[in-house]
Amino acid sequence: MNVTINNHSYEATKGERLLDVARANKEHIGYFCGGNSICQTCYVKVLEGSELLSPMSAEERALLSETLINEGTRMACLTTVEKEGTIRVLSLVEEIKRVAETNPLELTGYAAKMGWESLVQFPETMRMQAGRDFDVWQLISDVLSGIGDAFQLVLKALGPSFSGNIVGSDNGDAGTCKPFALSDTCNCSTHKDTPQVTEHIAA
């Protein structure tokens, strides 16, 4: 089974959650609650293969407004791969990233829309959550794991920005520092061996 998340393709097995496929491959999907259907950051928009996914449960419907459902939105933590074929999805966080890169002026409208859809569904969401029986310690463990994974994704995204902080480091030159170079190997000096100058002050 092939699952494409944010234009990156991965293999998946029957019964595997979209969230687990994303986490296994360090793909950009939000899951601060560790996949416990609380934080609602793992929205994905199904672009292809919706018929290959698990039917929408009552729990999932409680988290999504009718507008989002009609747009093909699913909760990655509650949606599993069920049939052979090609599935393509776009995560909420990736969609926000693309809007920010292509037309940042649309971010306000986008945020307002998502906020409104969450507000519309809030009573139903709270009723569903109130009826759930949580294993508190497991929940805490999952949340911490989810935050840790999210932090790793941020570092991965920022990696290219920091990899070239020191100019000339590849050819053995001391080089100069670029902004934000936080490394012991970079002391913002353009000389390898700067002799120390000792002042002698006459008495």
Report on the structure:
By secondary structure, the chain is of the alpha+beta class. It has a domain at 2-133: Beta-grasp domain (Ubiquitin-like (UB roll)). The chain is built from six helices and five strands. It has helices spanning 18-24, 58-63, 66-70, 92-102, 107-130, 136-163, and strands spanning 2-5, 8-11, 43-48, 73-75, 86-91. The chain has a five-stranded mixed beta sheet. The chain starts with a strand and ends in a 40-residue tail after the last helix. Residues 161-203 have low confidence and may be disordered.
What coarse outline follows from CA principal-axis ratios? globular
- Largest sheet, order of strands side by side? 2-1-5-3-4
> What profile does the largest beta sheet have?
5 strands, mixed
Query: Given the helix and strand composition, which structural class is it?
Result: alpha+beta
Count of DSSP H/I helices: 6
Q: Could you estimate the helical fraction of the residues in percent?
A: 25-40%
Which CATH architecture of the domain at 2-133 is right? Roll
